[in-house]
Write a structure and sequence with these properties.
The complex is a heterodimer of chains A (325) and B (306).
Chain A lengths: L1 H28 L3 H6 L5 H11 L5 H13 L13 H36 L4 H14 L3 H15 L12 E3 L3 E3 L4 H34 L2 H9 L3 H39 L4 H10 L3 H29 L1 H6 L3
Antiparallel strand pairs in A: 1-2
Chain B lengths: L1 H8 L2 H8 L1 H18 L1 H4 L40 H37 L1 H15 L3 H16 L1 H6 L1 H28 L3 H9 L3 H37 L11 H9 L8 H28 L7
Classes of the chains: A mainly alpha (325), B mainly alpha (306).
Chain lengths: 325, 306
């Protein structure tokens, strides 16, 4: 087991090196740190002198080593537009994205579980059939279109919910701007998190339904019926509990994918999170910020994947062995 | 030729197709959409790329059946005064070109890498599959967004927009090849120890010929199954990128960039600029997905589960 963990962590570090190399190459070939520092109005001679003092004329490998060393310390360079360390800019935007993903995950759980269970218990009812047909359609609707339709219905036509921004936020602990504590903030969260949740909804309803139906066929459920237990108890305690394990596994993986879709959702709702910031950075050719975002997202994914793999390894020994080819 | 036709007529594929109404309708809709896309310059009422046809006075006219509608513009006009129907037809054409182009590219990359990796094994396999693993641990949309962001910064927005079609093909192709590589590798691993491969090796055929002529045909079923779903994915990716402003420019809009350009105007009530292209996009992706589901069930029930 120890060897497995070590191997998995080495692999994670390797991946991070690859990502940092890609990031550094972009920064080195496309970005211009001198412009980032002093802007356009400096003579070429001064520019060259500055390049020398900053070490930009050093060989590529030495510069890369320096980049990795700084990155390990949390220094990912200055954002050209914000005039602040890129990492600080990203961290200040992170709470918005986290809250969006959190809201979407909550909706996902509280909608897909009851619906999935219902579709498994009553597979022939018209409501289940409708849900299943709708879920095929749901996979084919891009998330930004869902978001736009929601805005059109609830903001433009009915005028019930706000269509952009985070609303009123409260500062906790000095750096976490939360919209979860004010009524205004919560209202602003509804539409964005619904549209984000809508991407995963069909998949989850189908997954829960098929897992649950499989469990309902097993011997111990038949035995529970034979014992004359109440229906609710059989469905919820005996059957549902045992469908949860595979569902939780998939949920862990899908949260990562949801993170990618926040870029789209944040664009539609002008949600001031990391994805929105990233697109602004692209529009402004803010290379440092772009690379910093790449590295931060890389770290998040690599850490999550590694932790999930290690937990799998603990739970399921076959994975540890299969990996050792 | 005649013999092949007869074989097709008595095949299980056609038999199950005839019994599945959803598959038949989907195919019919898909064929119509493809024809419309291919014949776009002939069918569309106006040429949306010709500035002579565009009159800013015509902007934001609602569809013809609404009160302020104009009979000349069946689905209304967009914000620049272009006929929405024509622009949508040309947008569909772009989406088809980019989607199919990207799938051809990723299939090519994936098949070559999958064949090499599966047949040669050893170090080559380890390195290539590690790369695929790394890329697969990120959502493909994220990868596509990153690559396009890098391209856009590297080329500058002007150049990027000029080259948008080939660039998008490359971006989406690069973002999704691991799916093919994995699938092809898996089938190659299953095939390469069978007797016919050994026989070919004994006659002294070269590796390339064994891989391409003997193993590849047996891996093609799996490739076909994922290809349909991948076309739908590629079209969705293209739409997402265009919606983010990293894809087709507004001057030559695909369906995604049309939705983007219309989005700001739904607040003033001009819903048609966004909704019609949106419905067309959903319809196109939906029929491909339905066909893909059907094909998967018929050809290989075990593949792609979950």
């Amino acid at each position: 087991m120890f060897a497995f963990i070590i191997r998995r962590i080495t692999q994670a570090i390797l991946v991070m090196l690859v990502i940092s190399f890609v990031g550094f190459t972009i920064k080195n070939k496309i970005g211009d740190p001198v412009r980032d520092l002093v802007g356009e109005r400096v003579t070429p001679a001064e520019r060259e002198a500055l390049r020398d003092t900053l070490g930009l004329n050093d060989p590529f490998v030495i510069q890369y080593m320096r980049f990795v060393k700084n990155a390990a310390k949390g220094d990912l360079g200055l954002s050209f537009f914000h005039k602040r360390p890129a990492l600080a800019v990203i961290l200040s935007k992170a709470p918005a994205t986290m809250e969006l993903v959190f809201g979407a995950a909550l909706i996902l759980v509280f909608v897909s579980m009851p619906v999935g269970v219902y579709c498994a218990i009553r597979p022939r009812s018209w409501l289940s059939r409708f849900t299943m047909a709708f879920s095929t359609l749901g996979v084919s609707i891009p998330v930004f279109l869902t978001a736009i339709v929601l805005i059109y219905i609830f903001s433009v036509e009915l005028n019930w919910l706000p269509s952009y921004g985070r609303g009123q936020t409260v500062n906790i602990g000095g750096w976490w701007e939360t919209g979860l504590l004010t009524r205004d903030g919560l209202i602003h969260l509804i539409l964005p998190s619904f549209s984000l949740a809508s991407i995963m909804m069909p998949l989850f309803i189908r997954l829960i339904r098929s897992e649950m139906m499989e469990v309902l066929e097993t011997e111990y459920i038949k035995f529970a019926w034979a014992k004359g237990l109440r229906r609710g108890r059989i469905w919820l305690v005996h059957a549902f509990k045992n469908t949860l394990l595979p569902v939780i596994t998939v949920f862990g993986v899908q949260i990562g994918i949801m993170f990618a879709f926040t870029i789209l959702t944040e664009t539609v709702f002008q949600w001031q999170g990391m994805g929105f910031m990233f697109l602004e950075a692209v529009e402004r050719s803010d290379t440092s910020l772009l690379v910093a975002y790449l590295v931060v997202v890389g770290v998040i994914f690599v850490v999550v994947n590694t932790v999930v793999d290690i937990i799998y390894g603990l739970v399921n020994p076959t994975i540890r062995i299969a990996g050792r080819t | 030729m005649k013999q092949m036709w007869r074989r097709f007529q008595s095949s299980y594929l056609l038999y199950s197709f005839k019994r599945d109404r959803i598959a038949m309708v989907s195919l019919a809709v898909l064929v119509v959409l493809l024809l419309v896309g291919i014949a776009a310059p002939l069918i569309s009422p106006y040429d949306p790329y010709d500035p002579g046809n565009i009159d800013i006075m015509n902007s934001e006219i609602p569809p013809a059946w609404m009160e302020e509608g104009d009979g000349a513009f069946l689905l209304g006009t967009d914000i620049q005064g272009r006929d929405l129907l024509s622009t949508m037809i040309h947008g569909l054409r772009l989406s088809i070109i980019i989607g199919c182009g990207a799938v051809v590219l990723q299939a090519f990359l994936g098949i070559v890498i999958g064949l090499l990796s599966g047949y040669l094994g050893g170090k080559t396999d380890a390195i290539l599959m590690r790369i695929a693993d790394i890329q697969l641990s990120f959502p493909y949309l994220m990868v596509a967004i990153f690559i396009s962001a890098i391209f856009q910064v590297a080329f500058g927005i002007g150049r990027y927009e000029e080259l948008a079609v080939p660039l998008l093909v490359v971006i989406i192709g690069l973002a999704e090849w691991p799916v093919y590589a994995r699938t092809v590798r898996a089938s190659v691993m299953g095939e390469k120890n069978k007797e016919y491969v050994e026989a070919a090796r004994v006659i002294g055929l070269s590796r390339t010929i064994i891989m391409v002529r003997h193993i590849l045909p047996n891996a093609l079923t799996a490739v076909m199954v994922i290809s349909t779903i991948q076309v739908a994915n590629a079209v969705m990716s293209e739409a997402a990128l265009s919606f983010l402003g990293l894809g087709m420019p507004v001057t030559r809009p695909s369906l995604g960039s049309l939705i983007r350009s219309g989005f700001e105007y739904i607040f003033s009530g001009s819903w048609w600029i966004t909704m019609f292209p949106g419905v067309l996009l959903v319809l196109f992706v939906l029929v491909i997905n339905l066909l893909g589901d059907w094909l998967r069930d018929v050809l290989n029930p075990k593949l792609y589960k979950g």
